């Protein structure tokens, strides 16, 4: 390989779930520019050129299976980017559907050895290790329907935070079994990032003081997408099981104590089970 070939996607076919807008769209554009053939799955229409577009509502398991049947493989990378901020479908859209899709693509052999999965978690998923027994119990559910039923039966788990903690725990736990099949799995944990979802939920205020103190702008979708593209590229061949903070150092300087202002809210996040 040349020095930069490991970062590229020439000859690779990539699936982006949630690629109509925001970070998913930015990831699709990034890997396309790096040489990939791109398949986008979303409930919304895609307004830029892709090789295959599949319409799906992730809250409907039958529709999801039909959408997976339409994916033309082999696939070398999956970006699981679809997500919502809350409501009764938050666990299905943010985690249960993505797990189902990943597991079917592995079982079907569509995701080939050497491939990789990158999910989008959040700073809201911090502290997942404190709740591992509950998360392991949830992750023991074998399929979409049983995971959905588990959430219905456990108060306080149908939340954005639990969906992101579930991603972090899943990514950590699956690194071993997936690597026996030659597949890696990682996630990014973005800080507030300027997308339609963040604007609709006023998330950009979360690190506003840190942004002012560091004279930096809010993160853009393409800045998260570049990290996702790296994690799913051969350049990250040694990286698996990681949920990587992409927040310009807001969380770490808060934990480390140099950014005192951030400490209370980060400590709150890290000790909460969910909200
Ligand atoms: N923007 C932020 O500040 C921020 C921070 C941390 C994590 N995240 C996470 O990043 C991910 C992407 O969010 P974004 O900010 O790019 O938002 P976005 O709204 O721009 O993108 C989300 C995409 O998911 C799709 N989608 C939503 N529900 C769907 C469903 N039921 N079926 C199929 N597709 C569906 C939407 O159509 C959209 O294309 C989400 O998981 C979000 O939780 C966002």
From TrEMBL:
Domain NAD-dependent epimerase/dehydratase, first and last residues per copy: 14-89
For this UniProt record, give its keywords in alphabetical order, as a comma-separated list. Oxidoreductase
- UniProt xrefs under Gene3D superfamilies: NAD(P)-binding Rossmann-like Domain (3.40.50.720)
A single Gene Ontology MF term assigned here is: oxidoreductase activity
Domain of life, per UniProt, equals Bacteria
Any Pfam family hit: adh_short_C2
Which SUPFAM superfamilies does this UniProt record tie to the protein?
NAD(P)-binding Rossmann-fold domains (SSF51735)
What InterPro entries would the database entry show? Epimerase_deHydtase, NAD(P)-bd_dom_sf, SDR_DHRS6-like, SDR_fam
What family classification does the UniProt entry report for this protein?
Belongs to the short-chain dehydrogenases/reductases (SDR) family.
**What is the protein name for this chain?**
NAD(P)-dependent dehydrogenase, short-chain alcohol dehydrogenase family
């Amino acid at each position: 390989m040349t020095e930069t070939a490991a970062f590229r996607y020439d000859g690779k076919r990539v699936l982006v779930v949630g690629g109509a807008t925001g970070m998913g769209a930015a990831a699709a554009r990034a890997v396309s520019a790096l040489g990939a053939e791109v398949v986008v799955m979303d409930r919304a229409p895609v307004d830029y050129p892709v090789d295959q577009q599949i319409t799906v509502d992730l809250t409907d398991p039958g529709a999801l299976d039909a959408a997976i049947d339409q994916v033309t493989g082999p696939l070398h990378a999956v970006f699981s980017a679809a997500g919502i901020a809350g409501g009764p479908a938050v666990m299905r859209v943010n985690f249960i559907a993505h797990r189902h899709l990943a597991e079917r693509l592995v079982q079907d052999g569509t995701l080939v050895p050497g491939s990789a999965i990158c999910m989008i978690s959040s700073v809201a998923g911090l502290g997942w290790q404190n709740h591992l027994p509950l998360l392991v119990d949830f992750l023991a559910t074998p399929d979409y329907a049983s995971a959905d039923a588990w959430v219905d039966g456990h108060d306080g788990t149908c939340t954005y935070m639990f969906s992101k903690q579930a991603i972090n725990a899943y990514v950590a736990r699956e690194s071993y079994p997936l690597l026996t099949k030659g597949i890696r799995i990682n996630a990014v944990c973005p800080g507030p990032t300027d997308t339609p979802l963040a604007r609709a939920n006023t998330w950009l205020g979360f690190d506003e003081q840190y942004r002012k103190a560091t004279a930096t702008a809010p993160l853009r979708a393409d800045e998260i997408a570049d990290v996702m593209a790296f994690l799913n590229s051969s350049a990250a061949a040694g990286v698996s099981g990681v949920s990587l903070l992409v927040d310009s150092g807001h969380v770490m300087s808060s934990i480390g104590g140099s950014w005192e202002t951030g400490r209370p809210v980060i400590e709150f996040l890290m000790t909460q089970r969910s909200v």
